[in-house]
Design a protein that fits this description.
The chain is of the alpha+beta class. It has helices at 3-12, 32-37, and strands at residues 44-47, 52-54, 59-62, 69-70, 74-76, 82-85, 99-102. The protein is built from two helices and seven strands; from the N terminus they run ααβββββββ. The longest helix has 10 residues, at 3-12.
Length: 106
């Protein structure tokens, strides 16, 4: 999937590119492909492989996220790592996934 298609998909899902964010809260630079594709740092969750579980042929689960994620929603990760974008509201509820990136060798 091209970067343009990823960005278009992200915007269609209600999330604007994170072009205003250059560094995460810990000072590490935000990868350019993340800035082009999804939302801001508060919505981004960089995952370790052990936090992502393929629970069936149709779904993933992610530690800390309340809902299952359809396999078909996974986008190719340009850095070979797992990233999920969603918001946890003040009430403790969570939004749907804005974007989910996974290594394509899964």
């Amino acid at each position: 999937m091209t970067t343009l298609r990823i960005a278009t998909a992200a915007i269609a899902l209600g999330c604007a590119p994170a072009s205003a964010h250059d560094v995460w809260a810990n000072g590490a630079p935000v990868p350019a492909w993340i800035k082009r594709a999804c939302c801001g740092p508060s919505d981004a969750h960089h995952l370790r492989p052990d936090q992502v579980h393929r629970v069936s042929d149709e779904y993933y689960t992610v530690d800390g996220y309340y809902y299952q994620i359809p396999i078909s929603d996974a986008l190719p990760s340009e850095d070979g790592e797992y990233w999920i974008f969603y918001r946890t509201n003040k009430s403790g509820s969570q939004t749907g996934v804005f974007c989910f990136f996974a290594p394509m060798n899964f």
